[in-house]
Specification:
single chain, mainly alpha, Membrane-bound Lytic Murein Transglycosylase D, Chain A, 2 domains, 5 helices, 2 strands
Length: about 120
């Protein structure tokens, strides 16, 4: 599928509401083809250029940013803007970010962590 100029701009901009709306419209089109749209939020009400809160992103994305279940011996940390695994490790007094990777096997690339996601940190 060929990308439009608008979609290419969205790939390089911060996640503003319009870019997110374009991505969601593309996903909705794919889901309509699979008849799975009954639980999706109407994204037409999102104001152009508006920043989305984590609650709004969670509602639109179907729960991708929900807090995970508690694990014994671990603290749950929500990734904030400009966080890196090294900064998070330093914040909790952990020697290496690689320990965080061991506790969170869902992270496949340590350079790609998303604001709003959750990590398990050993107490």
């Amino acid at each position: 599928m060929k990308s439009t100029a608008r979609e290419k701009r969205c790939a390089y901009q911060p996640m503003k509401a319009r870019c997110f709306q374009i991505k969601m419209m593309k996903l909705l089109k794919e889901q309509e083809d699979m008849n799975m749209t009954e639980n999706m939020m109407d994204i037409g009400d999102i104001e152009f250029g508006a920043e989305l809160t984590l609650d709004e992103m969670n509602e639109i994305s179907g729960g991708a940013f929900r807090k995970p279940a508690a694990k014994a011996g671990y603290t749950i940390y929500q990734i904030k803007a400009h966080d890196t695994l090294i900064r998070i490790a330093n914040k909790f007094g952990i020697k290496s970010y690689k320990e965080i990777l061991k506790w969170n096997p869902k992270i496949t690339n340590p350079r790609l962590i998303r604001t709003g996601d959750y990590l398990y940190i050993k107490k």
